[in-house]
Amino acid sequence: MNANVKVVERKCYINGQFVPGRKQFSKINPVDGSVVAQVHEADRDMVDAAVRAARAALQGPWGRMALQARVDLLRKVAEGIEKRFDDFLAAEVADTGKPVSLASHLDIPRGAANFRVFADIVRTYGTESYFLDTPDGKGAVNYAVRKPLGVVGVIAPWNLPLLLLTWKLAPALACGNTIVAKPSEETPSTATLLAEVMHEAGVPPGVYNVVHGFGPDSAGEFITTHPGVNGVTFTGETTTGSAIMKAVASTVKPISFELGGKNAGIVFADCDFDATVAGMANAIFSNTGQVCLAPERVYIERPIFDRFVAALKAKAEALVLGFPQDKATNMGPLISKQHREKVLSYYDLAKKEGAKVVTGGGVPKFGDARDNGCYIQPTLWTGLAESARTVKEEIFGPCAHLAPFDKEEDAIAMANDTRYGLASTVWTTNLSRGHRVAQAMEVGISWVNCWFLRDLRTPFGGTKLSGIGREGGLHSLNFYSETSNVCIKL
Ligand code: NAD
Ligand code: 6OD
Description:
Shape: globular
Helix content: 25-40%
Mean pLDDT: 97
Structural class: alpha/beta
Number of strands: 23
Bound molecules: nicotinamide-adenine-dinucleotide, (2E,4E)-2-amino-6-oxohexa-2,4-dienoic acid
Radius of gyration: 23 Å
């Protein structure tokens, strides 16, 4: 039992009130298997109440609020997260087991930054305007106005819970929408704490509602099929995206989908060797590989292949799989036993498919409470055919297949030979090549000599099975608002 973790209740938040559900489920800490929260599941009636509250709020003070007042409220929410930084940090770490060193630098600060940045963006972006010549010579002026979509369903995953919830919530609120949010069943806590912060900041009741639960026949499905929900924004698995697409079809809701990936890294022989090894190790193993942008396929130019594999192996073996609060810990557990089973099934499959296991491949033994948790060894393979399932399917664990290449065009062809298209990371000191290869990647986001370096104004999303639409900056405003054109004859 982890003495730092106490069991808390996570209720739903509907119309400005914390509301119990008829059923509850337990949230298990992946560090040691202990129960950290009892979570109140929303049934269909509760989701309906949340949607009705959100609709009413659109017609209430929130819907009438001037842009500057809304922006001020969003800034207060950002401040509220920062004031309760330690509470958010403890809750995120208890739900996910991720190292404090990671959550305190990435998840919680980004939760606050999303509100601040989208408050600025909505204040600064204008809309288009055109002068039209008319036969009478007097002309006409067109200008566009943005209106909220209405009630937006936000369905979030467990890997970066507060970061990915607020990445959608902040622009949706900035555009004047109201929200029915469903955090993952694995990570109910920070979405619930955020409700307290919203309340304290003075966000009117009904603007932000939280319904806990699962996907099918639970809160997720009740949101996507609800006729009162005007749009759905979703981050998660591609198969879930497909189910949601079917669910929204009958009510023709707009969707924004950020889905899975099987991302490639490309390392050229002219790279800055040490920086690339460090950067690639971070990209593969950060958050225990549970980042949709993580490269699970790395193509390395042949002259440095053996040296690079050895250096990456050393990095993997130096990772400290510890308790989250320990300063030295830089890799936590996977999110759940079920997810570990899935990742381990790929560890087995890789061997059956003929992989050479460079390092890892199993479950570590600690001799303490961590043995009841969901830890797994960081793992690297070589020797697989490009057609192997291990090379083709998203695993979402701390693992990657490393393959040599001889020519730039071969690396590009192998990197693009996937049904996914989320992200890529290219490492070279030849900047022309960096531009060329990054632009040749059939993905939504290409990095050169870096990874997961995010400017929130830039377009974010995936091609192929990795998503539909783009968010970030103006792209978020475009999804979370209806743009109406006004034409005035002069
Ligand atoms: P998931 O699809 O299992 O669940 C995501 C959310 O959808 C959860 O809240 C879940 O309860 C809900 N859900 C599940 N079935 C549903 C249904 N039928 N109707 C409505 N809601 C439903 O994903 P996950 O396991 O939480 O997250 C991991 C996946 O997310 C990986 O595939 C990863 O690549 C992807 N991801 C993508 C991005 C991106 O930006 N592209 C970011 C993070 C994670
Ligand atoms: O940084 C972001 O805005 C973002 N959407 C990150 C997604 C990470 C996926 O796991």
